[in-house]
Structure of AzlC family protein:
Amino acid sequence: MAPLIVAVMPIGLVFGAIAATKGLSSLETFLMSALVFAGGSQFVALDIWAHPASWAALGFSALLVNIRHLLMSASIGTKMPAFSGPAKYAAMLLLADEIWAMAEVRAGETRLTPAWYAGLALPFYLVWVMAGLAGSLAGAFLGGPKALGLDFAFPAVFIVLLIGFWKGRGTGAVLAASAAAAVLAHQFLPGVWYIAAGAAAGVIAALFTGERQEACA
């Protein structure tokens, strides 16, 4: 998990710096990271942030961005027989893309335990929250993400995660369908619908490729 923790630090710094430019205090930035703990929806929220904030728009955008957590939690939840009810709920509260990916790989090799999951999730969570706070305190000193080359940090993390899940042509078809749908939706639809479009196309492609593999078998 250490490389992913290092990778998320500049993303958290950028989030904090952008939050400061939007008028959020360091305390508000800290609480947003600590309570929301979802980088994608936090960045989307800042992108449409206004004074006064439209809570309906913020909530709906966060829902669209994080709707993938329904699928992620359904997948990893079936691999947690060693978790009690409260422990499983706590694990889901700390679920993020990086944590989910690492836990899925681990579950394919051995049994998931609460202690292992906590060792994975808690350091990542704490670094994300503290990096956002540091970015907020540094504020304008960080400059723009593009100027520092940090704008690619987010995509780079997900590219690394995708490589770990590559299983051949079927995976390629799912990624291609998801990417095509996301790009088209981004071009022709306002807001963050491209995220939902990409997720839906990926699910449909996965179902289709799965049925073809079963038929061939």
